[in-house]
Specification:
Belongs to the metallo-beta-lactamase superfamily. RNA-metabolizing metallo-beta-lactamase-like family. Archaeal RNase J subfamily. The protein contains 14 helices and 19 strands. It is of the alpha/beta class. The mean pLDDT is 96.
């Protein structure tokens, strides 16, 4: 069976992930994401109202025109998890394909919301939920099957899809860390990865996320970040003024910890910002998390401002606002607070807790720097990097290669510089550029089996 892999997006940047695998006459697309930094550098861009071709020209979503070169039919569109760099182009591109979107339950709910917000295209693709551990047939030949393997990441309900073919398995390895003690959900299923690596036909190709490949050691568990956060908030328990926390709104485990620790230090947690309300509200509705008690969630500008007025009236020392804006996004809640555009008044000595790392990309780094300076100008004291990454470090990559023993490896999820540490790592394990280690670019195809 011919096996061909089209590397469509995410191979020259962090963002706008999209990869297609053709096995015989059947094609599966993995991810359709947005490069948010290409949007943020423009003022007041509303992607919901924009045409896909304009977004492609901006470099914001994948240029999927290479799909016309693949000889086969798309059988499924499979986002690995609910981050925007993996799902936000679905409303712009999925309607071009007569195929269902297949994803884990939480991811499907987020895809539904993305589609409902779309103002330019009619997206009628079927939305199919499949749990980790589930399988489905691909095409009519009964020779190709897709499986979801549970992984741990900085968002709940993440999976790595595996395409089983007569030539071996194709493992799409974006995005994960090896967390054996997660705060929410099951540990990464390394036992299943080991079984896939040992099966007779083996792993034909492994497509891997290179984000932290240049960092030594192992990525710590989310339980480590939880302990760090607990220690930080308890250290300021006696402060009677304002304490504000920010994290990735999609990081439900971290939000859960913030909510619990807010109550522990005698403060009422309040979730503020559109995406904070969306991700946490969806997770609670689907029973992935139970925040227990009264947790206010406010997304619309007017309701957020009313919540801030209430906090100021009843006393900042009684509340812990958990807000959007950890990367300094211009329209996010914390950035507005730093600019003095909300009823919440920051005062000298107030604490701002960044429970998030800076995404290593120039736009984010610049915006985060500006946000912190605005907060400091108002007298805020900043606690930063209370976080663990959602991506494998060096030792995790060694373990995955050892577990899967793939015949071919394709590094992704980074530009060329960001992939180079992984290339060196793979070469140290016996892989060779141009033979079984394929460094590719957006818009290319790699012929694995002719």
């Amino acid at each position: 069976m011919e096996i061909e892999i089209a590397t469509i997006g995410g191979y020259e940047e962090v963002g706008r992930q999209m990869t297609a695998v053709r096995a015989g006459e059947d094609i599966v697309i993995f991810d359709m994401g947005l490069n948010l930094s290409k949007v943020l550098i423009h003022d007041n861009v509303e992607t919901e109202k924009m045409h896909s071709l304009d977004l492609i020209d901006m470099g914001a979503i994948p240029d999927d025109r290479i799909m016309s070169d693949l000889e086969g039919d798309v059988q499924a569109i499979v986002p690995t998890h609910g981050h925007l760099d993996h799902i936000a182009a679905i409303p712009k591109l999925a309607h071009r394909y007569d195929a269902p979107v297949v994803a884990s339950p939480y991811t499907i709910e987020l895809v539904k919301q993305q589609i409902s917000d779309e103002g330019k295209f009619q997206v009628d693709n079927d939305l199919v939920k499949m749990e980790a551990g589930g399988t489905m047939a691909i095409g009519d030949s009964e020779q190709v099957e897709m499986e979801f393997v549970n992984v741990t990441h900085s968002i709940i309900d993440a999976i790595n899809p595996v395409l089983h073919t007569p030539e071996g398995a194709i493992v799409y390895g974006l995005d994960k860390r090896m967390d054996h003690t997660p705060v929410i959900g099951d540990p990464i299923d390394m036992d299943r990865f080991a079984e896939i690596g040992r099966q007779d036909e083996g792993v034909l190709c492994y497509i891997e996320d290179c984000t932290n490949a240049g960092r030594k050691g192992r990525t710590p568990s989310e339980s480590v970040a939880r302990k760090h956060l607990h220690d930080t908030l308890n250290s300021v328990e006696d402060y009677s003024g304002g304490i504000v926390a920010t994290t990735f709104s999609s990081h439900i485990a971290r939000v859960k910890s913030l909510v619990e620790f807010a109550r522990e230090i005698g403060r009422q947690p309040v979730l503020l910002g559109r995406s904070m309300e969306k991700y946490s509200g969806t997770a609670e509705r689907l029973d992935f998390v139970d925040f227990q008690g009264d947790v206010g969630m406010y997304g619309h500008r007017k309701s957020v401002d009313r919540a801030f007025k209430r906090i100021m009236k009843e006393g900042k020392g009684n509340f812990l606002p958990i807000v959007t804006g950890h990367q300094g996004e211009p329209r996010a809640m914390l950035t507005r607070m730093g600019r003095g555009e909300t009823p919440y008044e920051l005062e000298n000595g107030d604490k701002v807790v960044f429970s998030a790392g800076i995404i290593p990309e120039p736009t984010n780094e610049g915006q985060r720097y500006q946000s912190e300076q605005l907060l400091r100008m108002q007298g805020a004291r900043i606690f930063d990097d209370i976080h663990v990454s959602g991506h494998l470090r060096e030792e995790g990559h060694y373990e995955m290669l050892d577990t899967l023993q793939p015949q071919n490896v394709i590094p992704g999820h980074q530009d060329l510089k960001g992939r180079s540490p992984y290339v060196d790592l793979a070469k140290s394990q016996g892989y060779k550029l141009g033979r079984d280690l394929h460094v590719t670019q957006n818009g290319n195809t790699v012929q694995i089996v002719e």
